[in-house]
UniProtKB/TrEMBL annotation:
<dbReference type="Pfam" id="PF13439">
    <property type="entry name" value="Glyco_transf_4"/>
</dbReference>
<dbReference type="Pfam" id="PF00534">
    <property type="entry name" value="Glycos_transf_1"/>
</dbReference>
<protein>
    <recommendedName>
        <fullName>Glycosyl transferase family 1 domain-containing protein</fullName>
    </recommendedName>
</protein>
<keyword id="KW-0808">Transferase</keyword>
<feature type="domain" description="Glycosyl transferase family 1">
    <location>
        <begin position="190"/>
        <end position="294"/>
    </location>
</feature>
<dbReference type="GO" id="GO:0016757">
    <property type="term" value="F:glycosyltransferase activity"/>
</dbReference>
<dbReference type="InterPro" id="IPR001296">
    <property type="entry name" value="Glyco_trans_1"/>
</dbReference>
<dbReference type="InterPro" id="IPR028098">
    <property type="entry name" value="Glyco_trans_4-like_N"/>
</dbReference>
<dbReference type="GO" id="GO:0009103">
    <property type="term" value="P:lipopolysaccharide biosynthetic process"/>
</dbReference>
<feature type="domain" description="Glycosyltransferase subfamily 4-like N-terminal">
    <location>
        <begin position="15"/>
        <end position="173"/>
    </location>
</feature>
Length: 294
């Protein structure tokens, strides 16, 4: 069989990006019988797709890049719904679409839906993102043959939105192999690099959905009784509360994440909604305790 995968989302340092990279890398490790066609669409960040392709040398692999920005992908595939994916990939038997756009295809279609934040909590999402996912969902319901869900919770949410249960396969996610306990030397080095001068709690994600305001509020109460710092990773998508002892580091290199986990006294993760909650498993792999919500 010939299997096409839209890998356009790898250019963003998000959970979807990590999932897509690991999906491709591990499929190529375990399957040398089928042929794979990778489709990467971007305009300004083509080099990031090229860098990913540099490390893939399998003989059963074809690597394609097209200058298609996300706004154009949304227009062509989610609004007009024209140009089948085969226009770019040639004839394929299976097509795995991305988290953003839903091209028409003659092939059997598979997609992974990681969560349904724009539908469950529209007040936490940008209106443009909500509109894009609504357009995409219409074609998912109508055309996709199989939907991969990371959890039973997301499966239940999908059924609520009108997707037939028989189309959904629950396949839990797994942490990247890079997540393992770091040495004390590496932890001390990263603390020195980022100016972390005491033991710390770790929070990941700076958005309303990640409950960052409540985390900081709880930390302020704790800091009266403890010398722990609160280290927060992730680019802020909203104005964040500044507080003594809270260190906002923004986006960091993914290779440094296991060290941050390993050095933390605990991961604080009281998220309001998750399709899966992969950071919890990443912390466990680094032997870091987790404080989370149900």
């Amino acid at each position: 069989m010939k299997i096409a995968i839209d890998i356009s989302q790898i250019i963003y340092e998000t959970g979807v990006s990590v999932y897509t990279k690991n999906l491709v890398e591990n499929l190529l490790k375990i399957d040398n019988k089928n042929k794979y066609v990778l489709f990467g669409g971007s305009l300004r960040r083509i080099n990031e797709i090229k860098n990913f392709y540099k490390y893939l040398h399998e003989k059963n692999l074809q690597k394609l890049i097209f200058p298609i920005p996300p706004t154009l992908a949304d227009l062509i595939w989610n609004r007009l719904h024209i140009l089948p994916i085969e226009t770019f990939t040639g004839k394929v038997d299976i097509f795995h679409s991305s988290d953003w756009s839903q091209p028409p295809a003659f092939a059997k279609k598979v997609t992974t839906i990681h969560d349904l934040v724009p539908f469950k909590f529209p007040e936490l999402s940008h209106p443009n993102i909500i509109d894009t996912h609504k357009r995409r969902l219409k074609f998912v319901i109508r055309e996709v043959d199989r939907i991969i869900s990371p959890s039973e919770t997301t499966k239940a949410d999908l059924i609520e939105l009108g997707i037939k249960e028989r189309k959904i396969s629950v396949i839990p996610e797994a942490p990247d192999p890079i997540y393992k306990p770091a040495t004390r030397k590496h932890v001390e080095s990263i603390k020195k690099k980022f100016g972390i001068k005491a033991n710390y709690l770790l929070a990941i994600g700076v958005s309303q959905r990640k409950n960052i305001d409540r985390i900081v509020e709880a930390y302020e109460n704790l800091s009266e009784k403890s010398d722990l710092l609160l280290v927060v990773l992730g680019e802020p998508k909203m104005k964040v509360k500044q507080s003594k002892g809270v260190i906002y580091l923004g986006h960091i290199n993914r290779t440094e994440m296991p060290i941050f986990y390993s050095g933390a006294e605990a991961l604080i993760y009281p998220s309001l909604y998750e399709g899966f909650g992969l950071p919890i498993l990443e912390a466990f792999k680094c032997r870091t305790p987790v404080v989370t919500s149900n």
